[in-house]
Write a structure and sequence with these properties.
The chain is of the alpha/beta class and 334 residues long. The protein folds into 2 domains: 2-107 and 301-325, ornithine cyclodeaminase, domain 1 (2-Layer Sandwich); 124-296, NAD(P)-binding Rossmann-like Domain (Rossmann fold), CATH 3.40.50. The chain is 36% helix and 25% strand. The protein has 11 helices and 16 strands. The chain has helices at 8-14, 17-32, 104-123, 138-150, 163-177, 187-191, 234-239, 247-253, 255-262, 275-279, 301-318, and strands at residues 2-6, 36-37, 42-46, 50-59, 64-72, 84-92, 98-103, 130-134, 155-159, 181-183, 196-199, 218-221, 241-244, 271-274, 293-296, 322-325. A hairpin with a 5-residue loop joins β6 (84-92) and β7 (98-103). α3 packs across α11 (301-318). It is globular.
Protein backbone atom coordinates (compact mmCIF):
# COMPACT_ATOMS: atom_id res chain seq x y z
CA UNK A 1 0.00 0.00 0.00
CA UNK A 2 1.24 3.49 -0.86
CA UNK A 3 1.18 6.21 1.79
CA UNK A 4 1.70 9.83 0.78
CA UNK A 5 4.09 11.87 2.91
CA UNK A 6 3.47 15.61 2.72
CA UNK A 7 6.06 18.04 4.05
CA UNK A 8 5.58 21.44 5.63
CA UNK A 9 6.27 23.05 2.26
CA UNK A 10 3.74 20.75 0.57
CA UNK A 11 1.02 21.65 3.08
CA UNK A 12 1.72 25.38 2.80
CA UNK A 13 1.48 25.16 -0.98
CA UNK A 14 -1.75 23.16 -1.03
CA UNK A 15 -3.71 24.66 1.89
CA UNK A 16 -4.28 28.32 1.11
CA UNK A 17 -5.94 30.58 3.67
CA UNK A 18 -9.09 31.45 1.65
CA UNK A 19 -9.67 27.79 0.83
CA UNK A 20 -9.12 26.76 4.44
CA UNK A 21 -11.59 29.35 5.77
CA UNK A 22 -14.32 27.91 3.53
CA UNK A 23 -13.29 24.38 4.49
CA UNK A 24 -13.54 25.22 8.19
CA UNK A 25 -17.04 26.67 7.68
CA UNK A 26 -18.15 23.40 6.10
CA UNK A 27 -16.38 21.30 8.74
CA UNK A 28 -17.72 23.12 11.80
CA UNK A 29 -21.22 23.08 10.33
CA UNK A 30 -20.88 19.31 9.90
CA UNK A 31 -19.84 19.03 13.56
CA UNK A 32 -22.76 21.19 14.71
CA UNK A 33 -25.17 18.94 12.81
CA UNK A 34 -23.89 15.91 14.73
CA UNK A 35 -22.25 14.34 11.69
CA UNK A 36 -18.81 13.91 13.24
CA UNK A 37 -17.15 12.08 16.12
CA UNK A 38 -15.09 14.53 18.19
CA UNK A 39 -13.70 13.20 21.50
CA UNK A 40 -11.76 15.39 23.88
CA UNK A 41 -8.04 15.55 23.23
CA UNK A 42 -5.69 13.42 25.30
CA UNK A 43 -2.66 15.12 26.84
CA UNK A 44 0.53 13.70 28.31
CA UNK A 45 2.70 16.19 30.15
CA UNK A 46 6.45 16.14 29.58
CA UNK A 47 8.16 17.25 32.83
CA UNK A 48 9.75 20.70 32.53
CA UNK A 49 9.24 20.78 28.78
CA UNK A 50 5.75 20.64 27.28
CA UNK A 51 2.87 18.43 26.24
CA UNK A 52 2.24 15.54 23.89
CA UNK A 53 -1.29 15.89 22.56
CA UNK A 54 -3.41 13.36 20.68
CA UNK A 55 -6.46 14.62 18.78
CA UNK A 56 -8.57 12.04 16.90
CA UNK A 57 -11.73 12.72 14.91
CA UNK A 58 -14.08 11.24 12.30
CA UNK A 59 -16.14 13.07 9.69
CA UNK A 60 -19.19 10.99 8.72
CA UNK A 61 -20.16 12.50 5.33
CA UNK A 62 -16.61 12.10 3.96
CA UNK A 63 -15.95 8.83 5.83
CA UNK A 64 -12.63 10.37 6.82
CA UNK A 65 -10.77 9.77 10.03
CA UNK A 66 -7.46 10.68 11.47
CA UNK A 67 -5.43 11.79 14.42
CA UNK A 68 -3.02 14.60 15.05
CA UNK A 69 -0.12 13.75 17.34
CA UNK A 70 1.57 16.94 18.40
CA UNK A 71 4.14 18.23 20.85
CA UNK A 72 3.61 21.68 22.34
CA UNK A 73 6.85 23.16 23.69
CA UNK A 74 6.26 26.81 24.68
CA UNK A 75 9.97 27.28 25.29
CA UNK A 76 10.56 27.00 21.55
CA UNK A 77 9.19 30.50 20.94
CA UNK A 78 11.98 32.61 19.51
CA UNK A 79 14.14 29.59 18.54
CA UNK A 80 14.60 27.70 15.28
CA UNK A 81 11.92 25.21 16.40
CA UNK A 82 8.15 25.66 16.15
CA UNK A 83 6.26 25.53 19.43
CA UNK A 84 3.88 22.99 17.81
CA UNK A 85 5.43 19.99 16.02
CA UNK A 86 4.13 16.61 14.95
CA UNK A 87 2.15 14.75 12.32
CA UNK A 88 -1.42 14.30 11.14
CA UNK A 89 -2.27 10.72 10.14
CA UNK A 90 -5.11 10.57 7.60
CA UNK A 91 -7.10 7.37 7.03
CA UNK A 92 -9.93 6.51 4.68
CA UNK A 93 -13.01 5.33 6.54
CA UNK A 94 -14.15 2.32 4.51
CA UNK A 95 -11.27 -0.03 5.30
CA UNK A 96 -9.30 2.07 7.80
CA UNK A 97 -6.28 2.34 5.51
CA UNK A 98 -3.62 4.94 6.19
CA UNK A 99 -3.47 7.28 3.19
CA UNK A 100 -1.22 10.17 4.21
CA UNK A 101 1.16 11.55 6.82
CA UNK A 102 1.22 15.35 6.94
CA UNK A 103 3.40 17.87 8.73
CA UNK A 104 1.25 18.96 11.69
CA UNK A 105 2.86 22.33 12.34
CA UNK A 106 1.82 23.59 8.90
CA UNK A 107 -1.71 22.18 9.22
CA UNK A 108 -2.08 23.71 12.69
CA UNK A 109 -0.73 27.10 11.64
CA UNK A 110 -3.18 27.47 8.76
CA UNK A 111 -6.35 25.84 10.11
CA UNK A 112 -6.17 27.62 13.50
CA UNK A 113 -5.97 31.02 11.85
CA UNK A 114 -8.60 30.00 9.30
CA UNK A 115 -11.11 29.25 12.07
CA UNK A 116 -10.34 32.66 13.59
CA UNK A 117 -10.89 34.13 10.15
CA UNK A 118 -14.26 32.40 9.93
CA UNK A 119 -15.22 33.67 13.39
CA UNK A 120 -14.16 37.18 12.40
CA UNK A 121 -16.23 37.03 9.23
CA UNK A 122 -19.25 36.01 11.31
CA UNK A 123 -18.75 38.28 14.34
CA UNK A 124 -16.59 41.33 13.62
CA UNK A 125 -18.12 44.60 12.43
CA UNK A 126 -18.14 44.83 8.62
CA UNK A 127 -16.08 48.03 8.75
CA UNK A 128 -13.39 46.61 11.06
CA UNK A 129 -9.99 47.66 9.72
CA UNK A 130 -7.64 48.15 12.72
CA UNK A 131 -6.00 44.89 13.85
CA UNK A 132 -4.03 44.19 17.04
CA UNK A 133 -1.92 41.05 17.33
CA UNK A 134 -0.56 39.92 20.70
CA UNK A 135 2.27 37.52 19.96
CA UNK A 136 4.83 37.47 17.17
CA UNK A 137 5.20 33.81 16.28
CA UNK A 138 3.82 31.53 13.58
CA UNK A 139 0.20 31.99 14.65
CA UNK A 140 0.59 35.77 14.62
CA UNK A 141 1.79 35.55 11.02
CA UNK A 142 -1.06 33.32 9.82
CA UNK A 143 -3.65 35.33 11.76
CA UNK A 144 -2.72 38.44 9.78
CA UNK A 145 -3.32 36.41 6.61
CA UNK A 146 -6.69 35.22 7.92
CA UNK A 147 -7.88 38.63 9.05
CA UNK A 148 -6.93 40.19 5.71
CA UNK A 149 -8.88 37.43 3.94
CA UNK A 150 -12.15 38.48 5.62
CA UNK A 151 -11.79 42.20 6.42
CA UNK A 152 -10.16 45.20 4.74
CA UNK A 153 -7.32 45.60 7.24
CA UNK A 154 -5.49 48.91 6.82
CA UNK A 155 -3.28 48.88 9.93
CA UNK A 156 -1.75 46.26 12.22
CA UNK A 157 -0.32 46.82 15.67
CA UNK A 158 1.72 44.00 17.18
CA UNK A 159 3.16 43.33 20.63
CA UNK A 160 5.09 40.47 22.17
CA UNK A 161 7.26 40.08 25.26
CA UNK A 162 10.50 40.19 23.23
CA UNK A 163 10.90 43.61 21.64
CA UNK A 164 13.61 42.54 19.16
CA UNK A 165 11.40 39.73 17.89
CA UNK A 166 8.42 42.09 17.67
CA UNK A 167 10.42 44.64 15.69
CA UNK A 168 11.60 42.02 13.18
CA UNK A 169 8.11 40.59 12.83
CA UNK A 170 6.56 44.02 12.23
CA UNK A 171 9.17 44.97 9.64
CA UNK A 172 8.80 41.72 7.68
CA UNK A 173 5.00 41.73 7.75
CA UNK A 174 4.84 45.36 6.64
CA UNK A 175 6.98 44.46 3.62
CA UNK A 176 4.95 41.32 2.95
CA UNK A 177 1.49 42.90 3.17
CA UNK A 178 2.40 46.46 2.13
CA UNK A 179 0.33 48.01 4.91
CA UNK A 180 1.49 49.66 8.16
CA UNK A 181 2.52 47.02 10.72
CA UNK A 182 3.76 48.69 13.88
CA UNK A 183 5.63 47.22 16.85
CA UNK A 184 4.04 48.53 20.05
CA UNK A 185 5.69 49.01 23.46
CA UNK A 186 2.86 47.32 25.40
CA UNK A 187 -0.13 45.07 24.92
CA UNK A 188 -2.39 47.91 26.03
CA UNK A 189 -0.97 50.24 23.39
CA UNK A 190 -1.61 47.60 20.74
CA UNK A 191 -5.19 46.89 21.83
CA UNK A 192 -6.57 50.36 22.60
CA UNK A 193 -8.78 51.41 19.70
CA UNK A 194 -8.38 48.16 17.75
CA UNK A 195 -11.43 46.76 15.95
CA UNK A 196 -10.09 43.17 15.91
CA UNK A 197 -7.72 41.66 18.49
CA UNK A 198 -5.98 38.30 18.06
CA UNK A 199 -4.15 36.74 21.01
CA UNK A 200 -1.60 34.17 19.88
CA UNK A 201 0.83 33.83 22.78
CA UNK A 202 2.18 31.07 24.99
CA UNK A 203 1.34 33.01 28.15
CA UNK A 204 -0.24 31.29 31.14
CA UNK A 205 -1.39 34.64 32.57
CA UNK A 206 -3.70 37.21 30.96
CA UNK A 207 -2.12 39.44 28.33
CA UNK A 208 -5.42 41.13 27.40
CA UNK A 209 -7.53 43.16 29.83
CA UNK A 210 -11.20 43.81 29.21
CA UNK A 211 -10.85 47.49 30.12
CA UNK A 212 -8.67 48.00 27.02
CA UNK A 213 -11.35 46.81 24.58
CA UNK A 214 -13.32 49.39 22.65
CA UNK A 215 -17.07 49.03 22.10
CA UNK A 216 -17.64 46.91 19.00
CA UNK A 217 -14.31 45.08 19.22
CA UNK A 218 -13.97 41.42 18.25
CA UNK A 219 -11.39 39.13 19.91
CA UNK A 220 -9.96 35.84 18.66
CA UNK A 221 -8.28 34.09 21.62
CA UNK A 222 -6.15 31.36 20.05
CA UNK A 223 -3.11 30.85 22.27
CA UNK A 224 -4.10 29.10 25.50
CA UNK A 225 -5.46 25.55 25.25
CA UNK A 226 -5.23 24.04 28.74
CA UNK A 227 -7.19 24.69 31.97
CA UNK A 228 -4.17 26.19 33.73
CA UNK A 229 -3.47 28.91 31.14
CA UNK A 230 -5.40 31.91 29.85
CA UNK A 231 -4.71 34.99 27.73
CA UNK A 232 -7.86 36.99 28.59
CA UNK A 233 -8.65 38.40 32.02
CA UNK A 234 -12.03 37.82 33.65
CA UNK A 235 -13.36 41.23 32.66
CA UNK A 236 -12.67 40.61 28.96
CA UNK A 237 -14.64 37.36 29.02
CA UNK A 238 -17.44 38.69 31.19
CA UNK A 239 -18.03 41.77 28.99
CA UNK A 240 -18.23 39.78 25.80
CA UNK A 241 -20.67 37.71 23.82
CA UNK A 242 -18.71 34.43 23.93
CA UNK A 243 -18.55 31.85 21.14
CA UNK A 244 -16.41 28.71 20.94
CA UNK A 245 -15.31 26.03 18.49
CA UNK A 246 -16.63 23.20 20.68
CA UNK A 247 -18.68 23.63 23.86
CA UNK A 248 -17.60 20.33 25.44
CA UNK A 249 -13.94 21.15 24.88
CA UNK A 250 -14.35 24.63 26.36
CA UNK A 251 -16.04 23.29 29.50
CA UNK A 252 -13.18 20.85 30.06
CA UNK A 253 -10.05 22.45 28.62
CA UNK A 254 -10.21 26.24 28.38
CA UNK A 255 -8.55 28.27 31.12
CA UNK A 256 -9.92 31.42 29.48
CA UNK A 257 -13.40 30.16 30.38
CA UNK A 258 -12.80 27.95 33.43
CA UNK A 259 -10.93 30.54 35.51
CA UNK A 260 -13.65 33.24 35.29
CA UNK A 261 -16.19 30.51 35.99
CA UNK A 262 -14.26 29.41 39.10
CA UNK A 263 -14.24 33.03 40.27
CA UNK A 264 -18.05 33.09 39.97
CA UNK A 265 -18.02 35.78 37.27
CA UNK A 266 -19.75 33.65 34.63
CA UNK A 267 -21.61 30.37 34.28
CA UNK A 268 -21.86 27.74 31.56
CA UNK A 269 -24.66 29.71 29.91
CA UNK A 270 -22.17 32.49 29.12
CA UNK A 271 -21.19 30.36 26.12
CA UNK A 272 -23.73 31.49 23.53
CA UNK A 273 -22.89 28.79 21.01
CA UNK A 274 -20.40 27.20 18.66
CA UNK A 275 -19.07 28.68 15.43
CA UNK A 276 -20.81 25.87 13.55
CA UNK A 277 -24.14 27.09 14.97
CA UNK A 278 -23.39 30.55 13.59
CA UNK A 279 -22.57 29.10 10.17
CA UNK A 280 -25.92 27.28 10.16
CA UNK A 281 -27.81 30.39 11.30
CA UNK A 282 -29.08 28.70 14.46
CA UNK A 283 -27.94 31.47 16.81
CA UNK A 284 -27.37 35.21 16.69
CA UNK A 285 -23.84 36.57 16.74
CA UNK A 286 -23.34 40.31 16.99
CA UNK A 287 -26.59 42.05 17.99
CA UNK A 288 -25.45 45.70 17.98
CA UNK A 289 -22.46 47.60 16.57
CA UNK A 290 -21.20 48.18 20.13
CA UNK A 291 -21.18 44.50 21.19
CA UNK A 292 -17.83 43.08 22.22
CA UNK A 293 -17.52 39.55 20.84
CA UNK A 294 -14.99 36.87 21.76
CA UNK A 295 -14.21 33.66 19.92
CA UNK A 296 -12.34 31.23 22.16
CA UNK A 297 -10.39 28.83 19.96
CA UNK A 298 -9.03 25.58 21.36
CA UNK A 299 -8.44 23.74 18.09
CA UNK A 300 -10.20 20.42 17.56
CA UNK A 301 -9.48 17.24 15.65
CA UNK A 302 -12.16 17.61 12.98
CA UNK A 303 -10.33 20.70 11.74
CA UNK A 304 -7.14 18.66 11.28
CA UNK A 305 -8.88 15.70 9.62
CA UNK A 306 -10.78 17.92 7.20
CA UNK A 307 -7.57 19.81 6.36
CA UNK A 308 -5.69 16.53 5.87
CA UNK A 309 -8.31 15.16 3.49
CA UNK A 310 -8.36 18.39 1.50
CA UNK A 311 -4.56 18.47 1.22
CA UNK A 312 -4.37 14.75 0.38
CA UNK A 313 -6.97 14.98 -2.39
CA UNK A 314 -5.27 18.03 -3.88
CA UNK A 315 -1.82 16.44 -3.62
CA UNK A 316 -2.99 13.33 -5.50
CA UNK A 317 -4.50 15.48 -8.23
CA UNK A 318 -1.35 17.62 -8.60
CA UNK A 319 1.16 14.78 -8.00
CA UNK A 320 2.68 16.45 -4.94
CA UNK A 321 4.41 14.65 -2.06
CA UNK A 322 6.44 11.48 -1.60
CA UNK A 323 4.84 8.02 -1.80
CA UNK A 324 6.24 5.27 0.41
CA UNK A 325 5.36 1.60 0.88
CA UNK A 326 3.68 1.20 4.25
CA UNK A 327 2.08 -2.22 4.72
CA UNK A 328 -1.70 -2.24 4.43
CA UNK A 329 -2.04 -5.83 3.20
CA UNK A 330 -3.17 -8.66 5.40
CA UNK A 331 -0.37 -10.02 7.56
CA UNK A 332 -0.34 -13.80 7.90
CA UNK A 333 2.12 -15.37 10.31
CA UNK A 334 4.39 -17.91 8.69
Amino acid sequence: MKVLVLSQQDVRRLLTMPECIELMAETLATLAKGEAVQPLRSLMRIPDAGILGMMPAYLTPQRSLGIKVLTVYPGNHGTEYDSHQGAVLFFEGEHGSLKAILDASAVTAVRTAAVSGLATRLLARPDASELAILGAGVQALTHIDAMRAVRAITRVRVWSRTSEHTDRFAERQAQRHRIPVEAMPSAEAAVRGAHIVCTATSSREPVLKGEWLSPGAHVNAAGASIPAARELDTDAVKRARLFVDRRESTLNESGDFLMPKKEGAIGDDHILGEIGDLVLGRIEGRTTPSDITVFKSLGIGVEDVASAKFVYDKAVKLNVGTSVEFGGERYDAQ
